[in-house]
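Batch 3, record 17
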Amino acid sequence: MGRVIKRSDVDDIGRRNNNIDSFKNRNFDGKRSTVDAYTHKKVFYSSQNYFTTRTTANVDHIVPIDSLINEYRGVIGRQDLKSIVNADFNLAVTSEALNKSKSNLNNHEYLLKKFKSGNPQDLETTINMLRAEGHAKVSVKMNVAEIKAKKIAEELERIPPKSIKPLTSVAKKSLGRGAEASLIALQVSTLENLAMVTMGKKDLKTATNDIANDTIKSGVSQVAMDSAQQLVINLASKANSKELAKLLSKDLPVAEAAVAIMVANTTMQYLNGEISAEDCAIEIMLQGAGSFVQAACMATGQIALAVVVSLIMTKVSGTILKYQQEQKLNAEREAALNRVVAKAMSELDRQRKSLIQQIDEENEKYTEAYTDGFELIYLSVLNNDDKGLTNGLNCILSVMNKSCKFETQDAFDVFFDNKDAVLTI
Amino acid sequence: MIQFVVAAAVGYLFRKSNQALKMDEQARHKYARAFARQVEAQQLVETKKKIADNALIKLVNRKKAILKRTMSDFLLLYSKIIKINFLPGEGIKELEGQVMNPIQLESIHNMGVLAVQPMSDEELLKNFLVAGATGAVINLAIAGPLGWAIGPVKALGDSIVNDSQRNLSNSNKQMKISNVIYSQAENLSVILDAITERSNRTSEVLAKLNLLFIKSIKHTAELIEKNGSERKKYSAEDRIALKTCINFADTIKKIIDVPMFDKEGLLIEDTEKVLVVGEEFLRNVDTTLTGN
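Prediction for the assembled complex:
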């Protein structure tokens, strides 16, 4: 990996142009013309006869070969680099004129050059080129991350101590998820320190020291720490104070965006509602942070980074918003459950009180009737008082709203003297 | 270097796992308490129901015994002098079948247990994306391959903790549900106590009246034996005795004829009300948790 890599080592004209299943042939799909990925105008397969360089198709490396070599030399192997250089996500069909004019520049560098020369590209082409560059750079990073992931898994497997084995399996299982999470997290976090520097709230020394502190706390490697510090230094040192002043005077939610970015480290508290302004912060991230970062990067000439970061910020914001909505839903369900529980408890409590009251009343009524009734009966038996005895029985029956068959002796005598009378009980 | 990274990652995972274990331990304790509360609720109802059932059986047996012996003696004796139409009411009819306690244990057993569902892959991934955002930062594209491993490890650690938080939250929900179940059991216990009280009270009244009734039958049997069906032979005192005995028979019959559980009576209606609250609660819990 340490050997010098030449352009010819990683370029693959067959895959780009010549093979039957080359990117160009697949793009044209047997037809004579296709749409230019940048200008969205018609371009033709061959330059024979009357076609000009503006209408003849070329295949462009969106991220130039030299740029990729410089960035990833020593990071990934030559074969891996070759596959990335000629991957579909890094190729675009465009006109020969544009391709030649762009030469070995990144899309944003080419656009800036045209702008400075007083002959800027039209808006549609500019957007298409920046979008293509953003997509390509994200894809390149994702693929590099995947290659690294495989390597780290292989390296971890080679470590002998038994205690490391579980981690190896953890790392393997986490590859797919980790790549995306780390990529997103990287952009958000480095911006935190970058924002502080560009806002003038932190000097480079403090920012890099803070990264070091954070890094040590996170337990990551010295290599990672150095790289992060270097990234911030590089980006922040390009910031022009006059342009920053202009930026601050615009109607951008700079302060809010800075706050939003700065709270990246407390995202979980945000989402769990531990920070009261979570809705506000999420809103800022969605509407403010992306544009702030883009504006900041544009001002410092990092147009491509602005596009990439904006894309990433949108993705981060979207993910966070969705997560937050789910958390809210859970919280709503929790609150609804609490309401259901409270309602049931309250109803059961009310019923219990009512039951106890009714049962107490019933017990009191029956106890009183039975006690009084038997007292009357026993006394009447002792005193040979038949009226009292009848009253005693009536007292017992009163709880059922009933009375004795014969309440008076006369009533009984009338019944008894009638031979045909029937006693119904 | 790789040893350092691995050690840091292992240490980090260990710390997060430790946090998760503590939360899982809390959740286990809470689940244990919640289930214990449900068991207490079931035991409370079971114990009270056993006492109430015994009181009911005693009352049924007493009613049957009075009808079979004392009331039969009365009817046999008095049919010698008067025409009697004995009409069994609801209370007597229900003795022919099995008197059922309105509270069945199934009502308390039916209270569900909140299912504890682990996070889905999608939830884990979302959690992973957000949870990993703080520590997994300075690793990937600009870092060496060793630094990369920390990101996933950090995110994984946080995801483990979040899964445990969710488990803890579910155990809290279970505890709340168990408290409602216990509260419902308390209400059912109040009703069961009332059934016991009512049954014992009626048994006691019937026993006392039956004793007086037996004496009255015995006394009037001698009069009927002596006077026969010739009404004029019965003195005013004899007639008072006959009237009293018939009144005892009528009173006892009226008490026996009161159904133990009137469909519109206090206990049946209130039992239904308590059970309705429980059923409605479970439906609401289900709707709340599933969102359906």
